[in-house]
Amino acid sequence: MESLWRKQTGKIKPSESIPQSSIRESHWDVVVVGAGMAGILTAYHLKKQGKRVLVVEANTIASGQTERTTAKITSQHGLKYARLIKTIGEQMAKLYAQANELAIAQYAGIIKEKKIDCRFERVDAYLYSLETEENLKEEAKAANRLGIHAEFVTETELPFDVKGAVRFQNQAQFSPLEFVKAVAVELNILEHTMVTEVKDHWVITDKGILTADDIVLATHYPMRNVPGFYFLRQHQERSYVLALSGAEPIKNMYLGIDEDGLSFRQAGEYLLLGGSSHRTGRAYGRKISSKKECGGAYEHLREMKQLYFPETKEVAHWSAQDCMPHDGIPFIGRFSAYTPHLYVATGFQKWGMTTSMIAARLLCDEICGKENPYQEVFSPQRLLVRAGSKDFLKDAAVSVAGLTKGIFTKKRCSHMGCVLKWNPDTHSFDCPCHGSRFDEDGKLLDNPAKTDIS
Ligand SMILES: Cc1cc2nc3c(=O)[nH]c(=O)nc-3n(C[C@H](O)[C@H](O)[C@H](O)COP(=O)(O)OP(=O)(O)OC[C@H]3O[C@@H](n4cnc5c(N)ncnc54)[C@H](O)[C@@H]3O)c2cc1C
Q: Among 350, 425, 437, 446, which residue has the most ligand 1 atoms within 8 Å of its CB, making it the best to mutate?
C-alpha cells in the first residue's frame, strides 16, 4: 500500500532541462547514486557550491525508504545521549547533538528561502515510557549537558498515562515528499538506472558508463561490499506505520522507549501510529495461524489503535527499514581509506531526516575541500569494532548462520547468498543478515542486493 506521503504528493518528475538519453556516457564533477533524502540534499548542496552534479536512481525519485518515513525532524534519537557520553565522550557527543540541532535549522532555512509548502511545523519531541523513569531522567540530564534544551515531565497529551517522558523543545515535522519535490526540480536526475559498480572515476550502470571526479553512494545501504565492510558494521531493522483518520489531533511527536514502544505524530488530519520493529529477515515476533508462520506486525498496531483510538479509521499502512550501526552513529564521509574519490552516507538508524541533512553538508564540504566540524564524529574510518563490539559479533554470527543454513533447499539472497525468510506482513522474502528484500516472484525490493532472485 502507498504511504500517506506518496498519496499526497504523487510521482515526482525529474526536471526536463537535460533529456535523460543525453546524460548517459557523460562526465560530471560529482555523481550521486540514489535519489532519496540523502542523495537529493547532497546534490542540492553540491550544486549550490557550483558543482555539476548528476543523481542516478535505480527506480524513481524518493521511491526508497524516504517515501515510507514518518518524517520527524529531530535531534531526539531514542535513548541516545547518555549512551554517547559513555561511549565516545562528552565532546564528541556534543558534536553529534549540535549537528542534529543544526540540521533542523537548515531544513527551516531551505524551506523559508525557497518558500516550500511542505507543512513544516515546529513541535516538541517526546520520549516516553510506561514502565520506567530512570532512563528518561538520565537522558534528559545528558541532553542538557550537551546543549539540548530537554526536560523530564510526567504529563503528555497521549491517551494513556506514562511513567515519565523527556521533552526536546523546538523540533519539527513535515511532509517529506513535498520537500523533495521542490528541491529535486532544480537537479539533474537520471531515473530507472541501476548502478552496478563504481570504480575509481567510473560509474557503471545497466544503461552505460558515466565518469565523475567524485562519487557519492547515497543508496541507503552501500552497494559495494569491499573495501568498507559496511555489511559487518550494521544490520537493518524494519518498522510499520498506520495512518488514522478521526483521531483527536496531537500537537507534538512521541516515541516509546519500552519494548514494542509506539511512535506518534500528526500529519495534517491524520494521526500516524508506528511500531512493531524487528530485525529485517526475522519476522515480527508473534506466532499467528500456524506454528512456523511468524508475523502480526500490522495486527499489533491495529490492536493498539483499537485500544487507544477506537473511534478512528485506518486510511493507509506501510513499512520501511533502516540501517542500524553497532555503535549508534551513522557513517558519513570517505567510503574507505583506499577509495579517495568515493563517499558514503549510511547507518541512519531510523533518523534519516536530520542525518540526511548532516550528510549533505558534510559530504559537500569534504568534496569541496572545506573543513567540517562534524567530520570526525561520523567518519566511516573510525574503528570497525568500537562500542558496539557485542553487536558486531552477533551480526557476524547471523551472517555465518545465514550462509550455511539450508544449503540446497532454500531461497537465497543475490547479495551474499544468505538464506531468505518469508515475512507474512510484507509478503516478501527478507535477508536476516543484511536486509535485502524480494517480492513473491523474486523481484528485488530493497538493497544491498542489486539483482532479482529466481
Ligand atoms: C518506519 C520508519 C520510520 C522512520 N521515521 C523517521 C522519522 O520520523 N524521522 C527520521 O529522521 N527518520 C525516520 N526514518 C528513517 C528515514 O526514513 C531514512 O533514514 C531515510 O529516508 C533514508 O534516506 P536515504 O536517502 O538514505 O535512503 P532511500 O530513501 O532508501 O534512498 C536510497 C535510494 O538509492 C537508490 N538505490 C539503491 N541502490 C542503488 C543503485 N545500485 N543504483 C541506483 N540507485 C540505487 C534506491 O532506489 C533509493 O531510491 C524512518 C525509518 C523507518 C523504517
A: 350
Distance 66 CA to ligand 1 centre (A): 4
- According to DSSP, the β-strands at 313-325 and 234-245 are antiparallel
If asked whether residues 137 and 198 sit together in one domain, one would say: no
Residue bearing the CA closest to ligand 1, atom 48: 64
Q: Domain of residue 247: give its range.
A: 121-171+234-325
Residue 313, burial from CB neighbour count under 10 angstroms (0-12, 13-18, 19+): exposed
- The rounded Å distance from CA 69 to ligand 1 centre is 8
Please indicate, yes or no, whether residues 278 and 402 belong to a single structural domain of this protein. no
Torsion sign, CA atoms 61, 66, 70, 72: negative
Are residue 301 and residue 421 in the same domain, yes or no? Answer: no
How far is residue 362 from each of residues 12, 47, 87, 102, 331, measured CA to CA in Å? 26, 14, 22, 12, 11
Q: What is the pLDDT of residues 176-202, one digit of tens each?
A: 999 999 999 999 999 999 999 999 999
Hey, which of 219, 252, 265, 447 would you mutate to test ligand 1's pocket, going by the most ligand atoms within 8 Å of its Cβ? 219
Q: What is the pTM of this model?
A: 0.94
Q: Which helix (H) or strand (E) element contains residue 276?
A: strand 270-279
